[in-house]
DUF4834 family protein
Amino acid sequence: MVKFLLIFFLVSIVLRFVLPVLMRWLVVAFVKKQTRRYGQQFGANPFEAPRPAPPRNSTATGQVHVDYVPPKQKPTQPKEFKGGEYVDFEEVK
């Protein structure tokens, strides 16, 4: 009985404290490996911060430059619904 309790205690300690640390280490190693593989395949690192875009022709501080202004549409009133085509329903047994 003592041998069983000792083995049970050791297994529970391993499952409670050692296994999560081991699994975390394995997952981190796997993710790093996949990141390197992705970087080799596509030439980029997905966890890298994106590079800032080169500055465009900047205007003076406080000025705003708008490239596109959409045309204004006239407000349209919804058309009155006059009903649809009547379809005779016939139950099929």
Notes: The chain is about 45% helix and 0% strand.
